[in-house]
Amino acid sequence: MRIEYNNLYTHYIFSTFQRIPLIKEKNRVRVEKYITGIVNNNSSKLYAIYANPEHVHLLVSRSPSLSEEELATIIADSSEQFINQNNLSTGNFKWQQSASAFSVSKSDIENVCKYILNQPHHHKKTSFAEEYQKFVDHYQHTLKK
Questions:
Q1: φ and ψ at 122, to 5 degrees?
Q2: Under 8 Å CB-to-CB from 109, ≥6 apart: which residues?
Q3: Structural contact between residues 109 and 59, judged by C-beta atoms closer than 8 angstroms
Q4: What's the CA gap between 59 and 57, in Å, rounded?
Q5: Which residues are bridge partners to 60 per DSSP?
Q6: Which residue from 47, 43, 50 is spatially nearest to 23, judged by alpha carbons?
Q7: In this structure, are residues 19 and 128 in contact, taking their beta carbons and an 8 Å threshold?
Q8: Between the CA of residue 116 and those of 5, 71, 87, what are the distances in Å?
Q9: What are phi and psi of 55, to 5 degrees?
Q10: Strand pairing partners for 110?
Q11: Secondary structure of the chain: what % helix, strand, coil (to 5)?
Q12: Sheet hosting strand 45-51, strand order edge to edge
């Protein structure tokens, strides 16, 4: 069945392989623009993106024809190839084999965008490992038996 209207907001977090800081500041905007193009070319809309040296946050309103995993795979494969073809990283650039995707309600879009765009300030106080654990703790619910 065709979906006519949707609100499928997803906050993605991609980590570089072994969380090595491979995205150089001088290439950050270029990587962000390329990922924005990938999202747009897949009938989705990017609201915010920030490429840190070892991870990237993005908030996307995704097409209902793509699952979170399908869009994440497209973004990862294409951006990995782009970064390597354009020598935007020292050595071979790779993402981790898994990413995170957290659903976001429409009422939280503005706060999530601010959070993503404020990454440089945020990471002066909090490491990526601490940040990531907070996301997992906040969004994951363990089913009790």
A1: -60, -45
A2: 9, 47, 59
A3: yes
A4: 7
A5: 10, 46
A6: 50
A7: yes
A8: 26, 19, 26
A9: -160, 160
A10: none
A11: 45, 20, 35
A12: 45-51, 55-61, 9-15, 100-104
The H-or-E segment that residue 12 falls in is strand 9-15
Q: Is 61 helix (H, G, I), strand (E, B) or coil?
A: strand
Separation of alpha carbons 93 and 83, rounded Å: 7
pLDDT single digits (tens) 23-64: 999 999 999 999 999 999 999 999 999 999 999 999 999 999
**Cα distance between residue 123 and residue 141, in whole Å:** 26
pLDDT tens per residue across span 89-103: 978 999 999 998 988
Q: Specify the residue for token string 């601490």.
A: 130
